[in-house]
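dumping this here so i dont lose it
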């Protein structure tokens, strides 16, 4: 049984409790993704969200009650759980910590085991094994997320997976996302689908327009100062390499 969260609670302590407790309760059916999964691989980007995919489920209603029961175990926390059309969202507030948990369901999601390692030890806790989305799937979803939202945060994550971790996107996952583009950006909202070549063109344009000033504005609060120096050039190089791969069809 996961130990209670030390008080006063911190954001990172709540994250760790959720990761460890979900691994106990849901086992391989809870797959961590997004910023917290990257934190376990030593990404310096901060986050206030923790994101999961639960498999194999057809409906978010199938997991709603169980997630609510687990989060109710956090003594002293205010938990607000809401079911939205695309995800299940929980807002958790305890002491000075306030985080958001988002959960989706899928019939299939490729996951791999990962230790909570240094993250757990930094909080004085022993590490445990959790499951995270496989790196090639994660990169494919991040590319699709950038394409639909055009957030520099997503582009940084693509850089991290490709340049730092040496990963390439899972083609079948990326093709599935591109076959059904869902965006609120007017120009993209009119599209029903995109090809890999069209995505590559968009990535090249973004790389060409990226400046260090914009990077500081959009990512300055999410990354340590020493990570920001020269980061625009590193992201550009990684994005161009991704575009080249998409264009080659490899």
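and the seq i came up w/
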């Amino acid at each position: 049984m996961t130990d209670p969260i030390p008080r006063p609670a911190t954001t990172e302590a709540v994250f760790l409790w959720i990761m460890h407790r979900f691994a106990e309760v849901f086992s391989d059916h809870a797959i961590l993704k997004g910023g917290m999964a990257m934190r376990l691989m030593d990404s310096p980007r901060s986050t206030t969200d923790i994101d999961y995919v639960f498999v194999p489920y057809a409906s978010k209603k199938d997991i709603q009650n169980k997630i609510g029961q687990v989060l109710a175990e956090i003594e002293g926390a205010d938990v607000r759980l809401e079911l939205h059309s695309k995800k299940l969202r929980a807002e958790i507030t305890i002491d000075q910590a306030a985080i958001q948990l988002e959960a989706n369901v899928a019939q299939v999601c490729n996951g791999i085991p990962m230790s909570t390692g240094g993250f757990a030890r930094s909080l004085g806790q022993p590490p445990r094994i959790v499951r995270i989305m496989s790196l090639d799937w994660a990169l494919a979803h991040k590319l699709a997320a950038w394409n639909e939202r055009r957030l520099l945060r997503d582009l940084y994550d693509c850089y991290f997976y490709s340049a730092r971790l040496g990963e390439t996107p899972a083609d079948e996952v990326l093709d599935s996302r591109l076959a059904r583009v869902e965006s609120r950006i007017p120009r993209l909202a009119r599209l029903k689908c995109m090809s890999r070549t069209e995505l590559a063109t968009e990535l090249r344009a973004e790389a060409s327009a990226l400046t260090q000033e914009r990077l500081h504005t959009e990512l300055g609060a999410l990354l340590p100062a020493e990570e920001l120096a020269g980061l625009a050039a590193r992201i550009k190089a990684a994005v161009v390499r991704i575009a080249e791969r998409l264009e080659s069809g490899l």
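The two ends are 45 Å apart (CA to CA).
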